[in-house]
């Protein structure tokens, strides 16, 4: 019987990613501490850190001599001057663009009008990204990668399978941008991307098992299980918005009836208010009405909250995660959704499972999807770095 071959390149790539994120979250860490935290042997760490340093990704600062015996210690940090990553969040009516350094620090963000026409949306994203680079006085050559997050089914190879709220089907949205931007681009479902950002940059860095639930035009789920994002065999796992919670109920954008997102998403809430003749047409107006004690709005949110709680109870019973994170519009409306949601959750979730599950609100706000794009771009960068050893990428000037 032959022994299975060890994919050393894959192991090196995984270890490189682990060390990068440990340094990113612990600026000034030493190689000795890095070995202790990561569990990776010192010899492997030395090789990886030397490579990252030669590529201009990691910066090493040597302590001043103390006169004591032994080698001086060195502090490691991610060199933000290496270049920029861009995150693009696509919605039917708006495209949000965030520019960040490779350590994930935001340095520019803007919103441009969206479009249901794919070519127009591509051009708007390209022009918006050019504006973001001008905001930090950076050349396009400093762009190391782009991540695109959009509401819809996205396959493992980055194809848009079906985005009902955009009206897109079987589309390679990133192809045209790759040709013009000349850098790696990774595209993913917006909620999966936001879940990745929640783990890398948000409040769930140390949580290995959580479900991220985000709602705007629809409701999607990011399943972060056993320490990594679960995409399923075709990349389509996590479409919790189309879980049926009211048999034969409201028509959903997917063509089905009674879906979760037809009752608890921002679009569903606004549609119900419009049906009742209420003038609120966006979340800001809904929140203002809540603060004024508007009984119609509060009743609609209580009903949506009850459906939200029922849907979350089903997820918790199936997944048994450590945490459920509410993002997007659900996070903004949480103060008025959660009372009814918590009651429905307690009534429908198995008590033994519910007891150990935290229900929290993400602090990423409207930046969740584009920061998900940053997370995707960073993941792509670490999987296949465009920087070649000994040739650090020249960065543009940064502004405060």
Q: How many independent structural domains?
A: 3
The DSSP helix count reads: 14
Helix/strand order, N-terminal first: HHHEEEEEHEEEEHEHEEEHHHHEHHHEH
> What is the CATH topology assignment of the largest domain?
Nucleotidyltransferase, domain 5
What oligomeric state is this?
single chain
Q: Show unreliable segments.
A: 387-400
Residue share in β-strands: 15-25%
Topology, number of strands: 15
Largest sheet: 5 strands, mixed
Kindly provide the name of the CATH class of the largest domain: Alpha Beta
The helicity comes to 40-55%
Our measurement of the CA-to-CA distance between the termini, rounded to an integer number of angstroms, reads 61 Å
Summary keywords:
400 residues; alpha/beta; Arc Repressor Mutant, subunit A; Nucleotidyltransferase, domain 5; 3 domains; five-stranded mixed beta sheet; 14 helices; disordered C terminus; WH_DNA-bd_sf
What does this structure look like?
The strands form four sheets. Strands 5-4-3-6-10 form a five-stranded mixed β-sheet. It has a five-stranded mixed β-sheet with strand order 13-12-11-14-15, sandwiched between helices. It folds into three domains: 8-81, Winged helix-like DNA-binding domain superfamily/Winged helix DNA-binding domain (Arc Repressor Mutant, subunit A, Orthogonal Bundle), CATH 1.10.10; 83-194 and 368-383, Nucleotidyltransferase, domain 5, CATH 3.30.420; 203-363, 2-Layer Sandwich (Nucleotidyltransferase, domain 5), CATH 3.30.420. Helix content is 41%, strand content 20%. Helix 2 (31-38) crosses helix 3 (42-54), helix 4 (118-135) runs parallel beside helix 5 and helix 8 runs antiparallel to helix 10 (295-319). A hairpin with a 4-residue loop joins strand 8 and strand 9. The longest helix has 25 residues, at 295-319. It is α/β, with parallel strands linked by helices. Pfam families: HTH_24 (PF13412), ROK (PF00480). InterPro entries: ATPase_NBD, ROK, WH-like_DNA-bd_sf, WH_DNA-bd_sf. This is ROK family protein.
